[in-house]
């Protein structure tokens, strides 16, 4: 069972993001993941930093955390640029970068920022994954696809190791890509109830789940924490992807999810990962579960 902190890099200074990352590292989290949008979802007018640059800066300011994303939006980047960015972060971090990627969940965002995708986004993602692996081989190749065409392409250096790939999604075509390419499969929270149904389609990819956590550090604050969780994440309140409670209650709820097949939790705290929450969760929940 692994725990990674999911920390959307919005409405925070870069100093705050690094402080949260260091707190997570000290608390026993194995990694940290950021989001990838050109404008903060449902939060227009609020500041938000770039996904890849944030990952690089956090990697430079930590020593153990795996750094990645839930998830990079494939149409935002030409695959040769993405491949080079990933290899650079892999080398700079000493092999602590994982590539989390998806086909793009907010179609209106592509239109808003003038990003054209000629056809189905999942088909483009399939080609991107093929091209990434070819570029990471360090060998020269040609590629003729519908979306990507490369002639005599080669990139060096090669990665320090096979960069782990996480693919997010639950659609039929996405699951085919998970089985073919992914080391990790991230099941969206609103599909958490479908884990048993979808797991056989994931092949050898290990399941992860973005889990919204309302941590009740003090029983006297239960009502406050529950109200905050419902206000900010009400869309998930009735599903298994939201857990609220004291440390022993969270241990029980997360253990049940682990028993159902979840191997990594991307923990999204309802209070936006206050340092005391990270510390307490690490000591009382991760410590109890041996994460």
How would you describe this protein?
With 291 residues, the chain is α/β, with parallel strands linked by helices. The protein has one domain (2-208): TIM Barrel (Alpha-Beta Barrel). It is built from ten helices and twelve strands. The strands form two sheets. Strands 1, 2, 3, 4, 5, 8, 9, 10, 11 and 12 form a ten-stranded parallel β-sheet that branches. A two-stranded antiparallel ribbon has the order 6-7. It is globular and about 65 Å long. The N and C termini lie close together (5 Å). 42% of the residues are buried.
Low-confidence stretches: none
**Nearest-angstrom radius of gyration?**
19 Å
- Helix and strand composition category: alpha/beta
Number of distinct beta strands: 12
* CATH architecture annotation: Alpha-Beta Barrel
CATH class: Alpha Beta
Number of structural units classed as domains:
1
The portion of residues assigned to helices is 25-40%
Question: Main sheet, how many strands, which sense, barrel?
Answer: 10 strands, parallel
Instruction: Give the CA-based shape.
Output: globular
Strand content: 15-25%
Number of helices: 10
CATH topology: TIM Barrel
Order of helices and strands: EHEHEEHEHHEEEHEHEHEHEH
The CA-CA distance between the termini, in Å, is 5 Å
Q: In the CATH hierarchy, what is the superfamily?
A: Luciferase-like domain
Give the averaged pLDDT, no decimals: 94
Keywords:
291 residues, TIM Barrel, single chain
Summarize it.
The chain is of the alpha/beta class. The protein contains 10 helices and 12 strands.
């Amino acid at each position: 069972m692994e725990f990674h902190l999911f920390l959307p890099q919005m409405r925070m200074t870069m100093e705050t993001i690094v402080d949260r990352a260091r707190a997570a590292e000290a608390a026993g989290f194995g990694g940290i993941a950021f989001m990838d949008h050109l404008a903060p979802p449902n939060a227009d007018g609020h500041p938000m930093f770039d996904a890849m640059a944030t990952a690089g800066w956090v990697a430079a300011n930590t020593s153990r955390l795996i750094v990645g994303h839930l998830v990079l939006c494939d149409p935002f980047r030409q695959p040769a640029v993405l491949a080079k960015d990933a290899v650079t972060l892999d080398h700079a971090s000493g092999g602590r970068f994982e590539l989390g990627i998806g086909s793009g969940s907010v179609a209106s965002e592509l239109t808003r920022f003038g990003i054209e995708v000629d056809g189905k986004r999942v088909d483009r993602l399939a080609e991107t994954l093929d091209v990434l692996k070819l570029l990471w081989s360090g060998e020269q190749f040609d590629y003729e696809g519908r979306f990507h065409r490369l002639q005599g392409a080669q990139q060096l250096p090669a990665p320090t190791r096979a960069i782990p790939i996480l693919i997010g999604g639950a659609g039929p075509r996405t699951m085919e890509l998970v089985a073919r390419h992914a080391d990790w499969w991230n099941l969206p929270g609103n599909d958490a109830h479908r884990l048993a149904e979808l797991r056989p389609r994931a092949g050898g990819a290990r399941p992860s789940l973005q889990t919204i956590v309302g941590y009740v550090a003090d029983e006297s604050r239960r009502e406050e924490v529950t109200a905050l969780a419902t206000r900010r994440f009400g869309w998930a309140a009735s599903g298994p992807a939201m857990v609220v409670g004291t440390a022993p209650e969270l241990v029980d709820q997360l253990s049940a999810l682990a028993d159902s097949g979840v191997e990594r939790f991307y923990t999204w705290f309802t209070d936006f990962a206050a340092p005391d929450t990270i510390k307490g969760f690490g000591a009382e929940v991760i410590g109890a579960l041996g994460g």
